[in-house]
Specification:
With 115 residues, the chain is mainly alpha-helical. It has one domain. Helix content is 87%, strand content 0%. The chain is built from four helices and no strands. Helix 2 packs antiparallel against helix 3. It is elongated, with a radius of gyration of 15 Å.
Length: 115
Amino acid sequence: MNNKIFTTYGAFLILMGLIGFFLTHAKSALISGLASGAIMLALSFFIKNTVINYISKGLTLVFLGVFTWRFTLALMAFSGGNAEKLIPTIILGLMAFVSLFTLIISLLKASEETN
């Protein structure tokens, strides 16, 4: 089950990177979305390995922190009057929320599998 969770999460991150790039023309959106998504997709193919499973959860936590931090910065810029930061704020907020959701679901599935 964790394979599907992290595969979907990786595909979502790639999609958000592409959407962010096409809407804002920011190469950083493309690079961060594609890189983080590709890493999660690659790890999802080896998720049966216990070490890789823990690495996937750890990286999801790291991505949650990064996306939350970047969301906060974008929100502060948007609140300060920089209207062009609206789209990055929304996309980064979605990425942070989905990261949190993915982490919670993967932890719940892991606890179900051990019981």
